[in-house]
Amino acid sequence: MAQNDSDNLLTRDEIEFIREMFKEEPGQGVAEGMTPLALDQSEHHGELVNTLLASCELELKAQVGPHRFVFPFEVAPTLEGRVQLQLALPHIYEGHNNIRSWRFQPRDDELRLSDYQDHFSDPVVVDISKSGICIRDTAPRLDPTIPTHHLTLHLPEYDEPVSLRCNLVRFDDCPHTADAKLIAFRFSEDSPQVSATISRFLFSRHRRIAV
């Protein structure tokens, strides 16, 4: 999963465009700066709105230079029991629908990974993206013939750990560390909330690098 890190970092222009879309103020995070779109759920429109939200995928698209930004809408309830739409972090495409990967290569101790079956001895996250994670571990007790695994990822600055349902896609000898393995997992596509959480984490790290 490892690639040239500079190819996978958001540029300053991309980061500034995203911040502008969310009207992010100094000191705010993206989630805090999201601008909601209120929906009319009056007696005449409430049923129509609920039907629309249940059957449609709403997106906002924008072209910025050579890149195409696609912002999905998320449904968020209000205190009054109504719903509003919020922009989620975008998918970025370049060229002919080639998705631009958001990756991050953390320090050895920056992210913690565990699993309830105790398959790892001392796992180190070496690469994480919106779609998967790669770890290095010495003497793992993981069975490479089992395709699906459940992991727990602890992100800094997040109170709750992230539960991951993953598919094993790589189990190789580590070229730089004796007796270690490189193990890569692809996240299940049926967990949009997990994808959104990891996207926010990656964006926060890309912002720090671009400053």
UniProtKB/TrEMBL annotation:
Residues 123-203 form the PilZ domain. It comes from the Bacteria. InterPro entries: PilZ_domain. GO terms for molecular function: cyclic-di-GMP binding. This is PilZ domain-containing protein.
